[in-house]
Amino acid sequence: MAARADRRDRERGAALARTRAEQRAPPRNGEGLNVTETNQNADIKQWPALWALCLGFFMILVDSTIVAVANPAIMESLHTDINSVVWVTSAYLLAYAVPLLVTGRLGDRFGPKKLYLIGLTLFTLASLWCGLSGNVEMLIVARVFQGFGAALMTPQTMAVITRIFPPDKRGTAMGLWGAVAGVATLVGPLAGGVLVDGLGWQWIFIVNVPVGVIAFLAAMRYVPTLETHSHRFDIPGVVLSALGMFFLVFGLQEGNTYNWSARVWLFIAAGVVMLIVFVWYQSWNKNEPLLPLGLFKDRNFSLANIAITSMGFAITAMVLPLMFYAQAVRGLSPTGSALLMVPMAVLTGVLAPNVGKLVDRVHPRYIAAPGFLMLSVSLGWLALVMKPDVAIWELLLPIGLMGVANAFIWSPLAATATRNLPMNAAGAGSGVYNTTRQVGAVLGSAGVGALITSRLAANGVPSGGGPDEGGALPSFIVDGFSTSMAQAVLLPAGVLLVGFVASLCFSRPVRAGEPSRADATPESVEA
C-alpha cells in the first residue's frame, strides 16, 4: 500500500511539473499568441494594423526595383556608367540585408512598433536626401541610409502579423502581406517610369516623403504596442556577416571592371571565408547568437529560406536587363518600358490574396512548386523573344505568365516559413527569413550586373556603350546589346530552379490542435 501511495504521489508531482512547464513555455507550432496575450489584445484592430504595416512595407520594396527603370536617366544626368548605377541598387540592398538579423532582435527587445517607426523616419529622410543628390557618389551614400531604415522596418511587419493574428487567420494575413511583397517589386518599375518621364528621376525618391508621413501616422494609430523580451546582441556576428557580404558583393560586381584580376578573386574568397567563419561562430556561440541555427531544425523553415533566397535573386536580377532592353534596344520611354510590367503586376495583385486563402487548407508544396516552375519557364521564354524587332505582344505573354507565377510563391513561402516556430522565436525567425530574401536580392543585383558587363564585352558592345541622348542605341551595336540582355535574363531563370526543388520538399505544416511534428524546440531556438 505504501509503495502504491508513493507511486501515486510521484505521478501527481510529475503531472504538476509538466503543467507548470507548459504554462511557462512559449506557444509552439506557430500557434501565435498565448491565451493570456490573446485576451489582453482582444481589442486590437488586426486588419487596420496589417494595412498600416503593409503601406510602409510596400514603399520599401518598391524602392528595391524602382531604380531599374530610371538607370538610363540617372546615367545621363549624373554622367556615370552602367556599373556605377548598378551600385545605386546594390548599396541599398546591401545596407538592407546585412542588419536584418539584428534588427529583428531589436524589435523583440524594444518593441516592434517603436523600431518600425524609427526605421520609417530614417527611410523617409534618406529618400529626400536621395532626391537632392547631385552626383552618383552622394546618391549611393544616401541609398545606404535608406537601406538601413528599411532593415529596421521589415522584420517588425512579419513579427507583428505572427503575434496579432490567430493561426486560423494567419494564412489569409500572410497572403495579403505576400501579395504586397509581390506587387511592390513589380509596381516599382511602373511607378518609376511614370515619375521619370513626368517629373525627373529625382522624384522616384522624393515621392516617398508624403507616403512616409501617411504611413507613420497610420502606424502610430493602428499598430499595437506588444510585449518585449530582453536580448543580448552578437556584435562579432554582425561584423563578420557585414564584412563577408560586402567583400563578396564587391568582388562579384567589380570583377569585370578590374578584368577579374587576382585582387577581385581575393575579395570574393575573403567574403566566402568570412561568411563560413560567421556560420561556425554562430554554432559555437551558446549565449545568444545573431543567427539561431536551431531555427533550421524546422524543415519547412529551412526550405522556405532557400526558396525565398532564389526568389529575391530572380526578382532583382530580371528587372535590370529587361528595362535596359526596353529603353536602349526598343527606344521606349521610361513609362513605356514600365508599362510592359502591367500584366505581371495586375495578375499578381488579383491572384495573390485568393492564393493566400488556400495556404491554410492546401499543402504548400502544391502551391509554391508550380509557381517557381512557371516563373523559371516564363523567364526562359522571355529571353528567347527579346529580339530587336519582336512584336510587343510577344513580350507581354511571358510577362503575364510571370504575374501568375508570382501569385503562387510569395504568400505560401511567408506562411510556411514561420508557422511551426515557437513564439519566442518570432522576431528571430522573421529576421532570418527577410535576411535571406534580401541576401538573394543583393547577390542577384551583383550577379546580373557582372553578367551584363561580361556579355556586353563578349558580344562586341564597346565599354560604356549605352543609349544615346534620344534613348536608343547606335544601330551598329543594337544586336549585341539585345543579345547580352537576353542572356542575362537566363541567370534568374536558372536560379529559380533551386526554389522549385526546395518547395517540392516541403512537409505538411502542423495545423492548430495537432500534436507537434516540428523538430525545433523552444530551447533550441531561443531568440
Itemize the secondary structure elements and their pairings.
Layout: H1 2-24, H2 35-40, H3 46-78, H4 82-97, H5 100-110, H6 112-131, H7 136-164, H8 167-198, H9 203-206, H10 208-222, H11 235-254, H12 262-284, H13 299-329, H14 334-339, H15 342-358, H16 365-385, H17 392-407, H18 410-418, H19 426-458, H20 478-504
Helix pairs in contact: 3-4, 3-7, 3-8, 3-10, 3-13, 4-7, 4-11, 4-19, 5-6, 5-7, 5-19, 6-7, 6-10, 7-19, 8-15, 8-18, 11-12, 11-19, 13-18, 13-19, 13-20, 15-17, 16-17, 16-20, 19-20
Structure commentary:
The chain is mainly α and 527 residues long. The chain folds into two domains: 410 residues, Growth Hormone, Chain: A; 52 residues. 74% of the residues lie in helices and 0% in strands. Helix 4 runs antiparallel to helix 11, helix 16 packs antiparallel against helix 17 and helix 19 runs antiparallel to helix 20. Its main location: membrane. Keywords: Cell membrane, Membrane, Transmembrane, Transmembrane helix, Transport.
